[in-house]
Amino acid sequence: RANRMFHPEDSVVDVNGIKIGGKKIVVMAGPCSVETEEQIISVAKSVKLGGAAMLRGGAFKPRTSPYSFQGLKEKGLELLKIAKQETGLPIVTEIMSADKIERFVEDVDVIQVGARNMQNFELLKELGKTNKPILLKRGLSATIEEWIMSAEYIMAGGNDNVILCERGIRTFETYTRNTLDLSAIPAVKKLSHLPIVIDPSHASGMWWMVEPMAKAAIAAGADGLIIEVHNDPEHALCDGAQSLKPERFAHLMGELKGIAQII
Ligand code: PEP
Ligand code: MN
């Protein structure tokens, strides 16, 4: 059960020996989308050098417009596997439909459920039958209780390896892409024992806001961060404006090491 009543201690989700929800901060980083072999390998190597513990990268992309780049799909998963072989970094990538679960269980280390699928209950139920770590993003307009109930759908099937991810919510403010709800961190910690990771990239939509929001998330008690990094943000096929260049990611990691213990 996701409710802290049933589990007073913080839970720790183990991803190939990396503990999310322990004392140390886990940083996942990489491009919004896998674009080419050169791109994903180059970004994987630079985020590893910068100190990331895991590689993120979308292969199946939930885009607002059907005419936008939809991801490399299965080919993207293949390229992520190559990047993992090259760097040793575990892979975090988004699933969009239950018919791909077998493939994801085989190839991926953390299965991401995107904001748009937070209440895709059939998908959540199927993921509950696996024992893979699931990164469950908060829906665009979901309350904290709805989000925890979605975690419950996964856990009710027997999979306790759920990591929550706050990625900004819809508010009246349009200056930022979304509004980072930092209060979700203490709220989740009060209501649940599950670890929580913050995505300052999608929350703000602007690369120059990522560093201050990442620091604020750690100060508020987050267990980790998921950050978009691209080797050439100006030409990124998705989310370039919010992506850090590798050198800026390395700078951010240096700053974070001054305020927290990072894995
Ligand atoms: C992503 O991580 O690239 C993504 C699509 O995130 P979200 O589901 O939070 O919009
Ligand atoms: Mn993105």
Automatic annotation (TrEMBL):
Keywords: Transferase
Residue ranges of domain DAHP synthetase I/KDSA in the record: 17-258
One of the GO BP terms on file: aromatic amino acid family biosynthetic process
Enzyme class: transferase
Keyword Transferase: yes
Known EC number: 2.5.1.54
GO molecular function, one term: aldehyde-lyase activity
Name of this chain's protein: 3-deoxy-7-phosphoheptulonate synthase
Organism: Phascolarctobacterium faecium
Full-sequence range covered: 71 to 333 of 337
